[in-house]
Amino acid sequence: MNRSVETMDRYESQSCVPIDSDYREEGKVAWSVQDKLLLGLSPKGYLIQLVRNPVNWAFALIFAIGIPITIGRFIFGLSWVTHSSYDYPWGLFLGFGLFTMVPLSASGFMLGTTVEVFGRDDFKPIERLALLNGLLGYLFAVVFLQVDLGQPWRLIYPMFVSLGPAAVLFLVAWHVATYLSVQVAELVPACSEWMGWPSAKKFIKSIVLGLTIAGIILSTLHQGALGALFTYAPGKVHPLWYSSPFQWFHFFCSSIFAGLSMLIVVSTLCKNFMRWRCDANFLDNLDRQTLGLAKGCSLALITYFVIKIIAIAHDNEWSYLFTGWGMYFVFEIVVGTIVPMIMYTISIRNENASLARVAAAIAVFGIALNRLNTALVVFNWKLYPEIPHWREFVVAITVYSIYIVTYRAVLYRLPILYKWKAQVKVAGN
Amino acid sequence: MDKMNRRLFLKGGLAGTALGALGLVSKNASASSGFSGYSEGFGVLVDLTRCIGCRTCEAACNKEQQLPEPDKPFDDFSVFDEVHEGGQKRRTSEKAYTIVNKYKVEGHDKPIFRKVQCNHCNEPTCLTSCFVNAYTKTPEGAVTYNSKVCVGCRTCMIACPFYIPAYSYSSVLNPVVKKCIMCYDTRLKFGRPPACAQSCPRETMTFGKRSDLIYQGHQRIRLNPGKYVDHIYGENEVGGTAWMYLSSVPFEDLGFDTTLGNAPIINNVKEFLAIVPMVLTIWPALFAGFHLLATRKNVNNQGHESEKK
Prior knowledge:
The structure holds two protein chains of two kinds. Chain A contains 18 helices and no strands.
């Protein structure tokens, strides 16, 4: 009886003082792995905390419906969750899961470059969040791919069994795989602090410049390659969304503001809903860093906008602008590019981080719109529109929810939004 | 000794360059734009003016390729009036590698039939887009598919300009691409015509060397003035195809895509492929340089300061 009251009290207090060092503050007893995993709560206290959070109830509902259907995809085959279309072989799993999640995860290489290559240490407080956003985005893009592939157990075939090196997808496969390992390596420092393995961190530190430059190369190429994939289908993608010389650059350039905007969105969510986990270093620097990211976004947006226009001029596609598809194109460009560009610019001039946050949300929506348009909406524009099967939506929402839950679980624990105190102690000694 | 080292170094450098060049050459070779098909490759010339829509070829294909029983028997002609998604006519599927569609063309009392199957391109996009090399263009002219290495990404279905490859989505453990392979294993390999071509009671399909067929096609157009449109569909489309068509009405009236152009589709992708080696070679030095430029500033400042002291 007494114990459970104590647990409740602990939970109340621990939610204010989460684990951020190797040792409990009282005495010098090290946190056990279980403590670290359960956020310093007892198993019971942890459960109480889980149940108390209304967001978890929403996830529970999604998983109750979605997980059986996702498992069903692997038991009954793709035809059970999709329309088995021959004309639209790619649906939401790739249109959203691959083509949208990968640009939204470009934050890792952007901030890696800023901090490690250009030596802008003032962006350090948000660097790890950017790296994590990159890693998890790519990881779940691969999960989405595994849901979509006809024979997911053959995922490594393009690497080791049967190689088609002249194909764009070959490049994507190799680069995403290599880049995933690079991103895991880049996040080893955060893990090593949390687990108490300082040597791993030291090793990564010695190769971080190499890792970062590898990240830039891999990102330039595979972000671009995702666009280049559509150059295999010149007649199928609407001309306004298609450009054989510039497609790769459209996708690469837009991934820059996509990744940075996603980082602003995620950091805003953390600031508002995970404040207990952020330290002063993160919170105090956030507005300034958000405006810094906004500057990057506005530059990428204007570049993207100009190159989009140049692509239309290059293929002389002006007349398409006055058709129904053209109107839709203008809508996408205005909402997804021009509006966030103007809002970012105003936010920079007025040093208004809140406005930049709204702009970021719109830019993220704009990227999702562009990628879904290219892969699904304006694909086969001469044929007929395809609306994915409802189970396809359910599976996509389920996988995305698993992504969010994983994301949150990592943020709760690893030193991403806060600094691990052990460093301070070592320095003090 | 010094010289020796330098020579060794040069040798190594040369070898490296040669290796790199080899890599690039082989990449280009498989994606070359100058390839106009194997000279000895076979093809089929389909004369649409002869087709009466009896569906014998569909039945022959079904039997030869051991495909499942069709939903409607082959003597049921109501399939011609089927309307699929978005008003589409029938297309090739996992159960049918070839199908015949009926078209009513203005100014013609009789309907015109069009047979659809894989066109077996000279430079197939399914092949060039495949990241596991599942497709092969055989010297005999067929585009074959190796289901044993296919991962199921379905990029080939995205890439095929003719909407030919189908996928057995319903299979859980072994879903594969299903498409016409020109009866390669059972007939073409031995120089025999594909089952559909041989079964036709109207001799709609002429089997032979592709180069001969082009000659024959043009001769048929010349010898029958007014009968044919002066064009062989597939002679040049997307770099040329092994299956080619003659028609009495404009090809677009029969659902042929006449906007594809004559360049192989892979040419569109080359603009991107060309930047790959550039990024790979230029980026490391460029960004390492940026890093030095951006960060060594502080080191030098410190140096100046210490000098002043």
